[in-house]
Amino acid sequence: MKRPLRGALSTVALLSGLALVASSCGFGGSKSDSNDPNTLTFLAPIYSDGTKSEWDKIISDFEKANPSIKVNLQMESWTDIPNVVRTDLQNESSTPDILNIDAYSTYASDGKLYPANQIVDNSVLSDLQPSFIKNASMNGTQWALPLFASTRTLFYNTDLFTKAGIAAPPKTWAELTDDAKKIQALGGGVSGYGLPLGSEETQAETSLWTFGAGGNWSDGTNITIDTPQNVAGVQAIKALASAGVTQPNPGATNRTPLINTFIQGQLGMIEGLPPVISMIQQKNPGLKYATAPTPTQDGTPVTLGVADHLMAFKKKVDKTAAIKKFLDFFYQGATYASFVKAEHFIPVTTSGAQAMSDDPVVKAFGATLPTAKFYPSNNPKWAAAEGAMKQQLGTVTTGADPATVLKSIQQAAS
């Protein structure tokens, strides 16, 4: 959702899982497990403090219903999982059978993945929302399964708005900057706007600004980074940082700690994702806040849509029968809805949306889906662009030229 969709909300590296033991293979067990068609390895990221317990319960229930199949779970933080995946994919014995991550296109284009119709029943595919099927497809073939959706919306502190004399949330960048200046002037360590351009999820915050200027990261075929619209969006980021209305050192600030700063009442505004609602309830239920559409250059609503994915890797030993049983089990109505609700994201299945119609996250964020733009995750070159963004975009807050930075990222993607 992080993506997030990609939406990693815990930066604690957690190297534990079901039946996981230390070994030269990333998933533990013996090498013979990789040759067992009924033993699955599953690598997943940490979305919240409860992610592991949710997967543990699902796996336990699945194994009780399918005693001949074993699922070994390994979990990593969103900060660590890209490096873990790169290392594990160097050898078949350490490659996971099932992977939960954001981008899939590189693996699909390299011929490493099973098509989606080989790893779930048609009833699962027909339950998925069409826009997310398109986002999980390349050249007419669906290669991944959307897990759940995340969009962004503006969270703002209503107490700080009242103190600063601000009557309504901003709709344009000019209004956002003006409001942030008023909040910054309150003093007391409060910042006007939270701008997370550290390595955790730089591409998400940046996309809100480039999309808000009418930009895209792809023209449908090619990765398009250094377009005039994208440059305008990053120039707006630079201008906001230069105005001194963000937290200190925005180019090195990660999203998760900055969200906690907002929750503690020290930020006027921040772009938030669905789990922020539950985090506020847990950490500071007395916080006075509201949400509003993401401000854009001209006030036209747009937001970032993120869908993380499940995918299955081809092996010499065919494990599709076991994989299909596990994924079909996961996507069945009650199991899927329970997982999505626990992680506080937006369901991507029709049945899940119906089951969660009264959920506060669906109520707050469901309306944002029609205005969402997605990362071009079905382009194999997007992963390189995303990596370069995480390394370089923060430098615009310390003097780097936006056009030069975007040109460098374009070259990395090419």
Number of strands: 12
Strand count, sense and closure of the main sheet? 6 strands, mixed
Helix content: 25-40%
Low-pLDDT windows of residues: 1-32
Q: Give the C-alpha Rg.
A: 21 Å
- The proportion of strand residues reads 5-15%
Q: What would the principal axes of the Cα set say about the shape?
A: globular
Q: Which structural class is indicated by helix and strand composition?
A: alpha/beta
Return the average pLDDT rounded to an integer: 90
| Total of DSSP H or I helical runs spanning 4+ residues | 17
Order of helices and strands: EHEHEHHHEEEEHHEHHHEHEEHHHHEHH
**N-to-C CA distance:** 25 Å
InterPro entries: SBP
Keywords: Signal, Transport
Signal peptide: 1-21
Protein name: Extracellular solute-binding protein
Structure at a glance:
The chain has 414 residues and is of the alpha/beta class. The protein contains 17 helices and 12 strands.
Write the layout of secondary structure elements.
Layout: E1 39-45, H1 51-65, E2 70-76, H2 81-88, E3 98-101, H3 105-109, H4 122-127, H5 130-135, E4 137-138, E5 141-142, E6 145-151, E7 153-157, H6 158-163, H7 173-184, E8 191-194, H8 202-212, H9 228-242, H10 255-263, E9 267-272, H11 276-283, E10 289-292, E11 303-312, H12 320-331, H13 333-343, H14 350-355, H15 360-365, E12 372-374, H16 382-392, H17 402-413
Parallel strand pairs: 1-2, 1-3, 8-9, 11-12
Antiparallel strand pairs: 3-11, 4-5, 6-11, 7-9, 7-10
Helix pairs in contact: 1-13, 8-9, 16-17
